[in-house]
Amino acid sequence: MNHRRGFILAASAAILLMSFVYGCSRDLPTSTSAVVAKRPVGSVTVDFALLSDATSSIRHFPELGILDGGGVWDDLQSSYFRTTEVNREFRRGFAEFVIPELRDGFASARIVLRETRATISLPVPPDRHELSYYADADLVVDPSDFDRATSPVGMFETDANLEPQSFAFDVSKVVDQQRGSALGFRVKLESDPVESGFRPLGSAFSRSSTPPGVVIELTGALAADAIDYMQHVIGRLELSPGVSQSLLGPLARASEILRDGVDENDRAACGHLAAFFAALERAVGTEQSPGELPLPESDYLRETAGHVALALGCSGA
């Protein structure tokens, strides 16, 4: 486990994307703080997003003395449930991210939560949630995280009578502080742990939905950072060596070109991106003959590489 944590932290780079289409947001802070470092004139920048490296929920039955749950690839839940006098159940959701070094900075960062839940017709009041962050993330969610110390980010409301919503919060300052390290977020009901009613409360945010239920979206980062982060995403998947190298090789060569300090050479990365797209389609496979690459990650990689190709002015992008 410690080997896995150290490997993931060491593999950081920079960023995903997933068409930036958002639903309604009840709480959407508009303030941003640019953290772009001085760059050579002409440097190509893109907007892209970071996928969580660990997402899960911890549940607590206070009357029964039960505290369990956790993992790496589960859904993030902020909820409450009760059917008897002694089975109050609270769930707190956690998402932890590797933050790339982003040596040349970025313009802004925000965390986006997208609900994945059903709607109900019975009128119910909205549920209020607290979003907070912590800097000592270890990229594995376990019961010890349930009562960990966090710092507030903001509040938002979910409503089971409405279609699933999206919520976004500016986190530029803390992302800048955690460059080259890890960053965690916690979501819990405002009424946790004092809630005592018999009506279920809360919502869920699926990591494996399309687009993902929780991401950090960056603007104004270097295209090379986005390519490096794609390599991080591929590196944490359990792919065969041949498939892995077919994807990583073209990205590594494209990144090398974009980081050579000669802006006039940047378009030369387009050929390597084209090779990556071809390898990606082979890794995905077809409906009749599926490949090794899982759907959420393949969608992410396709979108992110498309944004880089577009920024570089590659033909066909």
Q: How is this fold's topology laid out?
A:
Layout: H1 2-10, E1 35-36, E2 45-51, E3 54-61, E4 66-69, E5 76-81, E6 89-98, E7 105-106, E8 108-114, E9 127-134, E10 151-158, E11 166-170, H2 172-177, E12 182-189, E13 201-205, E14 214-222, H3 223-235, H4 241-258, H5 269-284, H6 295-312
Helix pairs in contact: 3-4, 3-6, 4-5, 5-6
Structural class: alpha+beta
- Total DSSP helices: 6
Domain tally: 2
Query: Largest sheet at a glance?
Result: 8 strands, antiparallel
Shape: elongated
Q: What is the mean pLDDT? A: 87
* E-strand count: 14
Helix content: 25-40%
Strand content: 25-35%
* Uncertain residue ranges: 1-33
Q: What integer value in Å does the Rg equal?
A: 20 Å
Structure description:
With 317 residues, the protein is of the alpha+beta class. The chain has 2 domains: 2-221, no CATH class; 223-312. Helices cover 25% and strands 28% of the residues. The strands form 3 sheets. Strands 3, 4, 5, 6, 9, 10, 12 and 13 form an 8-stranded antiparallel β-sheet that branches. A 4-stranded antiparallel β-sheet has the order 2-14-8-11. Strand 3 (54-61) and strand 4 form a beta hairpin. Helix 5 (269-284) packs antiparallel against helix 6 (295-312). The chain is elongated and about 70 Å long. It starts with a helix and ends in a 5-residue tail after the last helix. Residues 1-33 have low confidence and may be disordered.
